[in-house]
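Example record

One chain of 167 residues, shown exactly as stored in the release files.
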Amino acid sequence: MKKLLLTITLLITALCQAQIDFNSKTLIGEVTPNGPVLLIEESTLVTEINNNFGSNVTKLEKCKIVKGVTMGEKEEEFYYLKFTTSITNKTLVKYLFNYNGKLYIDPVNETEPYQYSYTSCEGVEDCKPHLFVIDGEKGWTCGTSLVCVAEVTEENKCIKSSSVFMP
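Predicted structure tokens for this chain:
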């Protein structure tokens, strides 16, 4: 019995310390009656995403799976990874593919290029990420306006950027 517990403990430790391939069909979470649940250790996800961005970017501290509803021409429920930090008003999001309650980083049998990127929103007022649908296509925006903002001004208090991690 002690050998079995030791083996299970070592296996769990190895899995929790394993690197995550953010370009793979990795099972990230699942939908339960109590809401979405991460299946990978939060600290592992945060460490890996920070490693992918490098040392010149504000370090993200927390990660969770969030249920959202699209804006625009169609309202549909979806799930996404949400990374945050208490240092700045920055949020990084990644759409998750839902297959019968199993949540994946990338599609198992589809190709939709917009969903391969991570979107970052940073600003001071109403700068939360929202997924919208226009002409049947989905895309992220920061805030509730469908505009592209490169720098914060008095009228635009929110910046959006996108990142794609290549293997």
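Notes: The two ends are 41 Å apart (CA to CA).
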